[in-house]
Design brief:
Blueprint (H helix, E strand, L loop, with lengths): L1 H7 L3 H4 L6 H22 L6 H18 L1 H9 L10 H4 L6 H13 L8 H20 L7 H17 L4
Helix pairs in contact: 3-5, 4-5, 4-7, 4-8, 4-9, 7-8, 8-9
Length: 166
């Protein structure tokens, strides 16, 4: 909390007027990250085939992660009180980012571009692929440039989507 206070030019005690503790501050940061990511997804042009749209959404996640790696880790990899849990919170529409994915998956199933299945499980599995690859890259487990990783990420995502075709 002292480092945060110093970084924003206030006293550590001033932070406690707004946040009860470190956990509350981190939750607020994660929520702001999710709001930003949800806005990016909502503002993206959603035209083309379902596959093209889902790949574009995956690239938005990747862009966000590469621009804000520590925030991305906080949002998706840190245990936090109040963090959404699968399946309960997702299937009740509480995930502002996954809701967009699930709607697109559902639409793909309705249009016959994706085989009929549970759209939330597919959404969660796509997220796991995306987040897993991103985590490996951010953790230094892939020896490639950002451009090569981006191409690998896109190919991997397309391979997964091909497996969902009817």
């Amino acid at each position: 909390m002292r480092r945060v206070a110093s970084a924003v030019g206030i006293t550590p005690m001033a932070i406690y007027r707004h946040y009860a503790d470190r956990s509350a501050l981190l939750n607020e940061l994660a929520d702001a990250g999710f709001a930003d990511l949800a806005a990016r997804l909502a503002n993206a042009r959603h035209a083309g085939s379902i596959e093209e749209r889902l790949v574009r959404m995956a690239e938005i996640f990747l862009d966000h992660a590469l621009e804000h790696p520590r925030l991305f880790e906080l949002m998706f990899f840190e245990r936090r009180a109040g963090a959404r849990r699968f399946p309960r919170d997702f299937k009740t529409g509480r995930s502002p980012t996954a809701n967009v994915w699930a709607q697109t998956v559902r639409e793909g199933m309705e249009r016959g571009e994706l085989r009929d299945d549970d759209p939330w499980e597919i959404t969660f599995a796509m997220g796991a692929l995306s987040h897993g690859l991103i985590a490996l890259y951010l953790g230094g487990r892939l020896s490639s440039s950002a451009a090569r990783f981006r191409a690998f990420y896109r190919r991997s995502f397309r391979r997964y989507l091909r497996g969902l075709r009817p």
